[in-house]
Amino acid sequence: MSLRCVYTDLDGTLLGAGASLFTDEEGNFSMAQARALEAASRAGVEVVIMSGRRRAQVHEDARIIGQNSFIFDAGAAFSIDQETTLLLGDFELEEGQTPVQRMSERGVPDLLLENFAGRFEYHDPWHLDREMSHLFRGDIDTAEANALLEENGHGDLRLLDNGAIHRRMEGIEQAHCYHLVPKAVSKVNAVAAHARARGYSPEETIAVGDSLEDLEVAPAVGKFFIVANGPEKDPGVREAMSRYPNAVVTEASNGAGFYEAVVSSLMGA
């Protein structure tokens, strides 16, 4: 069955150093990503960004790569031809209220910041002007954080780990990016919902990413590619791969790994 869609993460995957489409992981100029996008375009394959970034950012990124469909806020919603579909499950909102406003009103960010002080903080300045998810950085156990949420009456929410980041934090060897979202929100649910809307079967799709949250997309696609820098920065990614028989690690990192995933899939490898 031929490839029809590629779902891809941005930071650490499609994008290189400095969040650029034209750099490798070390900051050198690279055309690997652009060549992969060109190959997909020539084959009539849609490329869909699945990112933790907010809608406005992902919309612009999708425009830059010539696509009119994207998944944003860690799977809280997707957009096709400027029509947005929310994927919040049964999370309750007041009329005109955003999930971020509702979570703040309930004091959930403060609960997490207080309990994990010194290891957890807002991912400044990217935490500003968000609607669907609160954004943090640090180094904490998400299972512990989610147990805390449950114990304090916030079981309709979860904290997810969206992977290692370049931003340094004092006293932390490798900081990660975290999203506080309604419990139903995930990239895997968003990918599955988007594929249904487009009429793609799982066998006609692949996904590429670098984090545990990305890896969880594997059951929704025919094959999942983890770019090499993912398990290098987070050993937990490689450990988790045993749960996903269709997941493989690329030889190359970042954009070159994305190129490897796309071209090998187009060739039927």
Overview of the molecule:
This protein is of the alpha/beta class. The protein has ten helices and twelve strands. It has helices at 32-42, 55-64, 99-105, 108-115, 142-151, 187-198, 212-215, 229-233, 235-240, 254-266, and strands at residues 5-8, 46-50, 69-72, 77-80, 83-86, 120-122, 134-138, 157-164, 176-182, 205-209, 223-226, 247-249. An eight-stranded mixed sheet has the order 5-4-3-2-1-10-11-12, with helices on both faces. The protein has a four-stranded antiparallel sheet with strand order 6-7-9-8. Strand 4 and strand 5 (83-86) form a beta hairpin. Helix 1 runs parallel beside helix 10 (254-266). The termini are close together.
The number of helical segments is 10
Domain unit count: 2
The top level CATH class name of the largest domain: Alpha Beta
Shape: globular
List how many beta strands DSSP finds: 12
Question: Which percent range fits the helix content?
Answer: 25-40%
Low-confidence stretches: none
Q: Could you state the CATH homologous superfamily of the largest domain?
A: HAD superfamily/HAD-like
Task: Write a brief structural summary.
The chain is built from ten helices and twelve strands. By secondary structure, the protein is α/β, with parallel strands linked by helices.
Provide keyphrases for this structure.
single chain; 269 residues; alpha/beta; Rossmann fold; 8-stranded mixed β-sheet; 10 helices; 12 strands; 21% strand; globular
Topology:
Blueprint: E1 5-8, H1 32-42, E2 46-50, H2 55-64, E3 69-72, E4 77-80, E5 83-86, H3 99-105, H4 108-115, E6 120-122, E7 134-138, H5 142-151, E8 157-164, E9 176-182, H6 187-198, E10 205-209, H7 212-215, E11 223-226, H8 229-233, H9 235-240, E12 247-249, H10 254-266
Parallel strand pairs: 1-2, 1-10, 2-3, 10-11, 11-12
Antiparallel strand pairs: 3-4, 4-5, 6-7, 7-9, 8-9
